């Protein structure tokens, strides 16, 4: 009889530095996020949310084509459906500015807006992911765009 080798199924686990928020702790995160949002809103900030995937050209133009972020730290890929060059958001400001300009919000937008955006860059991914997942709602000023309204 031939012996059949049983291959042990590889256990799939979360990426190093990425933490799941399990049901036992979810209510604590919700409380934290709601509290942070209330504090930020009390200072007049309103929320803006941009896509996590943007055209690569946005970041190359906004950050500079020859920087460590663009050359080494962005997750970029080609969209197999249409060939577009896309990038996972490495920082929040460029997308917010793009949205404000694209939707003509310069004079219509609130004087201050922030985003609870999660960003992706390869540098210190483990540390950045832990910080992002634990404090993204509390740091809207990290990706804050201020627009001036005429007086």
Structure description:
The strands form two sheets. A three-stranded mixed sheet has the order 1-5-6. A three-stranded antiparallel sheet has the order 2-4-3. The protein has helices at residues 23-42, 56-63, 68-73, 93-102, 125-135, and strands at 46-47, 53-55, 76-78, 85-88, 112-114, 145-146. Strand 3 (76-78) and strand 4 form a beta hairpin. The protein is of the alpha+beta class.
Helical content stands at 25-40%
Which class do the helix and strand fractions yield? alpha+beta
The biggest sheet, with number of strands, parallel, antiparallel or mixed sense and barrel status, is: 3 strands, mixed
Number of discrete helical segments: 5
Unreliable residue runs = 125-151
Number of strands: 6
């Amino acid at each position: 009889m031939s012996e059949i080798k049983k291959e042990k199924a590889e256990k799939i686990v979360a990426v190093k530095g990425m933490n799941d928020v399990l049901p036992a702790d979810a209510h604590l995160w919700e409380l934290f996020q709601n509290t942070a949002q209330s504090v930020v809103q009390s200072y007049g900030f309103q929320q803006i949310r941009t896509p996590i995937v943007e055209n690569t050209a946005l970041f190359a133009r906004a950050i500079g084509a020859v920087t460590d972020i663009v050359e080494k730290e962005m997750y970029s890929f080609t969209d197999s459906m249409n060939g577009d060059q896309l990038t996972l958001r490495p920082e929040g400001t460029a997308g917010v500015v793009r949205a404000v300009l694209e939707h003509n919000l310069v004079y219509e937008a609130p004087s201050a807006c922030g985003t609870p955006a999660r960003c992706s860059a390869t540098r210190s991914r483990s540390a950045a992911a832990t910080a992002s997942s634990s404090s993204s709602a509390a740091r809207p000023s990290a990706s804050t765009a201020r627009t001036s309204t005429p007086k």
